[in-house]
Amino acid sequence: MKLSPAITVKPDIFSVLTYPRKERNVLLERTLADLGITPLPFGKNVVWGVPVLGKGWSSIVIYGMQEQKEVAIKIQRRDSHRLSLGREALFLRIVNERGIGPTLYHEGKDFLVLEYVEGVPVRNASVQPKHIRCFLEQCHTLDLLSVDHGQIQGGKHLLIGEKCWIIDFEKAGFRTPRNVSSLVSELFLRKTECASRVRSQFSATSESLIKAVREYKKTNNLSLLLDVLHLS
Ligand SMILES: Nc1ncnc2c1ncn2[C@@H]1O[C@H](COP(=O)(O)OP(=O)(O)OP(=O)(O)O)[C@@H](O)[C@H]1O
Ligand SMILES: [Mg+2]
User: Fold this and answer.
1) Residues 107-118: pLDDT tens digits?
2) For a pocket test of ligand 1, which of 45, 74, 106 has the largest count of ligand atoms closer than 8 A to its C-beta?
3) Using CA atoms in the order 127, 129, 135, 138, what is the torsion angle rounded to 10 degrees?
4) Which ligand is nearest to the CA of 74?
5) Ligand 2 centroid – CA 169 distance (Å)
6) What pLDDT, in 10s, does the model give residues 176-206?
7) What structural domains and CATH numbers belong to the chain?
8) Residue 135 Cα, ligand 2 centroid: separation in angstroms?
C-alpha cells in the first residue's frame, strides 16, 4: 500500500506553515528564502510536535533567523476568517514610529516578518512599578494617536521582558481609544488573580483608580493616575 507523504513524512517547521492544513507552502518557503529568512523550530508552543512561538486564532507565529537577526514570522492561518494581515501591518507602521510594538520588517501577502520579542504575559509575570509606568506611557501614546489596540484587556498581548511589549495589533482601529482605561482595568480593577495580585502591591484603592481614570478620560493627562499609583 502506498502511503501519502503527509503520513510518512515526519512533521518539520515547513509542515506548519499552512496550519491547520497539512500541506507544504512552497511559495512561502521560497519567499522566505529570497528574504534570507530561515524558519526554525523554536518556542514554548508545540504544533504537531514542532515547536513554534505561538498559535493564535488567526495566525501561527514561528521563529526564524534573517542573517544574524532573530525574527518572528506571523503567518495567517488557513482557517482564519481575517481577510489579510494588511490591517495589522498598517497599525504596526504607525505605532512603530513611536517605539511601540515589535518592529515590522516585512509585509507579505499572508505573512508578516516582525522583530522577535521575548516576554511573559502580564498574568504570569512579576509586575513591577516600572512595568506599569512603561505600559501606561505606551497606552497613553496610543490614546493620543487615536489608535485603540482593542485587546489590552485580557492581558495576553502585554508581555514583560527586558522591555514591556504590546503585541498583536490585528484588532486595532481608529476609534475612541480606551488603551489607558483598559490597562488600568486589566492590571488593577478586574476580578482576576492577576489584578488582585498587582493591586495588592500598590496602596491604591479601586475607588481612587476609577476616579483617576475618569479624570484621565476628561483631560488626557496621566498625572493623577501616576500620583495615585505613586509612580510620579
Ligand atoms: N514578535 C513576536 N516575537 C515573539 N513571539 C511572538 C511575536 N508575536 C507573537 N508572538 C507569539 O505568538 C503568539 C500569538 O501571536 P498573536 O497574538 O500576534 O497572534 P494571533 O493569531 O492574533 O493570536 P490571538 O488569536 O491570540 O490574538 C503570542 O502570544 C506570542 O506568544
Ligand atoms: Mg490576535
Assistant:
1) 998 999 999 999
2) 74
3) -160
4) 1
5) 7
6) 999 999 999 999 999 999 999 998 888 889 9
7) 5-115 (3.30.200), 120-228 (1.10.510)
8) 19
